Amino acid sequence: MILIGLTGGIACGKSSVSRLLQDELGMEVIDADVIVRELQAPHAACTRLIAARWPLCVHPETGELNRAELGRVIFGDAQARRELGRIMNPAIFRAILSRIVVAWWSDLWRNGLAAAPTVVVLDAPTLFETKTFTYFISASVVVSCSEERQIARLHSRNGLVAEEAAQRIRSQMSLAAKRRLAGYVIDNDCADDFDALRVSVRACAGWMSQQSNKRLTCIFGSVIVAAVGCVGGLGYTGYRLLLA
């Protein structure tokens, strides 16, 4: 299995790219945003921790998270972002890793090691910031556009004025830094030209399929060998004890 990391700046069109890969090209996408929403469901463990730290961000009766209020809190405060990360990141890691393992094992079960590897996309806004899953991916793709386009989209989509939009953009790793780390960049500066984006995504999908699948095979293969070795060692020890 080839695991490709997909990331980008806020309002760059990463979600549109992800939908095209999934809906039109049939790729499996592990969506970190969807996972975060599941973890922040009403009365979920993470939501309760957020409520304990920022009571105004969670409805006291329904347990529903007020995402707009939480956004106002964290985008203007680096310390608050770090605190939210300490709450969310361990749970996000466990959830994403479990999905990667399931996808890898399913691909191995269906196709074996001889068939052409399946491409699975990890859609993660903070792929480079958290760094954890950069060790698992074969390559990364960044969706990029100009800051002017980001501000215009944030105004249209979220109703943010230019200053608020710029603050949210500055709170993230710069697109220039992400582009330097990427193996492939999709430029998405066209305002309404979805066909142009579709062409770019198809070209990117071809590039994805040419990447190596050795990373995950080595990681999970080593884990399986180690686990089998431990089980075998325990079995042999038990056998010797029975003979003693």
UniProtKB/TrEMBL annotation:
A GO biological process held by the record: coenzyme A biosynthetic process
Signal peptide stretch: none
UniProt entry tagged with the keyword Transmembrane helix: yes
Classification via PROSITE patterns: DPCK
Transmembrane segments: 216-239
GO MF annotations in UniProt: ATP binding; dephospho-CoA kinase activity
SUPFAM superfamilies xrefs: P-loop containing nucleoside triphosphate hydrolases
Keywords noted in UniProt: ATP-binding, Coenzyme A biosynthesis, Cytoplasm, Kinase, Membrane, Nucleotide-binding, Transferase, Transmembrane, Transmembrane helix
Pfam families from the UniProt entry: CoaE
Similarity-based family: Belongs to the CoaE family.
UniProt-listed HAMAP family: Dephospho_CoA_kinase
Name under which the protein is recorded: Dephospho-CoA kinase
